[in-house]
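Recap for those who missed Tuesday's class. We walked through two folding examples back to back. For each one, the amino acid string is listed first and its predicted structure tokens come directly after. Nothing is annotated here on purpose, so try labeling regions yourself before you check the end of the notes.
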Amino acid sequence: MQHPSITKALETIPVELRDGVARWFDRLVSVHGNVDLPEDVTRQVTRLIACSEFASLVLLKEWHWFLDCRESLDAVPDRAELDSLVDAVRRDIEDIDVAKE
């Protein structure tokens, strides 16, 4: 039996996707125990699982990380941190390109 917030969230996605997402929640409960998330978070997770098999696998594997970080996921990233990350990725790509030559 699905938690009421999961049942309600399943109603927000196309009928064709509901069984697969419901099975994912069943597996989540069997692996990590009872899942009690706020309704808005359950709705967001439902949409994510419905849209991405990769995300569903990662989320299932990293559930405790998700729970630890979920409140900060809506936070706007610091612009300086993003710029630093982009610069680091750009340097890595440039290093790979130089190594290929």
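Example two. Treat it independently of the first, because the proteins are unrelated.
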Amino acid sequence: EEPQRGRPRSAAPTAMSGRLRGIDALRGIAAIGVVLYHAVDQKIVPTNLLRYPVKLVQLGTSFGYIGVFLFFVISGFCIHLQRARAQATGDPTQINFGAFWRRRIRRLYPPYLIALVLYLILNAWSAGFDVTRFFVYDVVMHLLMLHNIDPKTCYSINGVFWTLAIEEQLYLAYFLLLFLRSRWGWTRTLLVCLLARVAWMTFSHAVWVRYGIGVPVPEAAASHWFTWALGAIAVEAYFGLLKLPRWTRDLRLATVLIVAASAMSNYLPSIPKDTPWHDIAWFLIHPMWGLGFFIVVNRTVIAEQNWTKRLPSIISVFATLGVFSYSIYLTHELTLMESWRYVSSSLSPLFNLVVIVLPATIIVAWVFFWFCEKPYMRKVAKKKDQQVVSAVFCDESSTAPQLEPESA
């Protein structure tokens, strides 16, 4: 973690002059992973020869939700990109808190608001419209992006919007992160981020024991601050502001961390909650995914140095999806609910998924991107000294799984 003096590495000009297509590709992969997680029915298994291919698809997509943690790492990378670039080029410009928030709101809130209204209209059309006290409270919590702190509102209107609330709260913590990083360095700052996770888990448990009130843990920003901070470290390493040890680029270690965390997550419900093993596993799972994807991000930006002439085809495809991954996140639940109305029950669910549901999800998201998201990207890009921001928002994260609050 030693600072590097002098000029930044040769890879850095890519970020100064254009998009990081490798980061876009990771966004696209994460987005499709979480879409498949929600789209694939894990219960329907055919009795013919397709049984085993379908079971294999179900197994793979059942872990698609971990793309959420890849998005958190990428979010930290992209949000800290402007500051890291300025430091690498010797630009003394400081990030202003008010200007930062105005850019974030102009860029992200209008598409979110449009999607929220669409979901409210769909709910009113399908289930009726009853303006109760809770309905007003629920809508206000979503408008304020505080719905992730209450189990009753966390998944109420759209079960995937809780990650947006986390992102907004992590933006608030960004300036505290910068302060801690400049004062103590990254090692102590990461320890503080981990302690925030411990503190929130302890608080949740205490509130549950004392008052019987469930306080969400997986849906809380404090639980993911460590993962988000890893992305900020990755972008500083990319610009040569610090030197990371070799293991932070080892994909074999990343595979071990991601697979191990996935296995722990799968078996966690079978571990009694009142045992220390449950608490240890519960604490480690998310940071292990974060570290694994941190390594993947580091490796990707290094590999991009070899893509100067031509992008690999698979990277190009996913990078294209990554450009409008926010729109995929905002609209895919709506599209999934509606597209299944038009599939044929006589055809294989896998066929319906590949031929109808997944293409419909991508097309609707693409249309939403052009008409409901891109206009606000242009407005941000026109602002002075914000050339990077229009290419940044990587945390529109995914459609995350509906994780139950671990409050006991």
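Answers for example two:
The CA atoms of residues 336 and 357 lie 7 Å apart.
The first strand starts at residue 2 and ends at 3.
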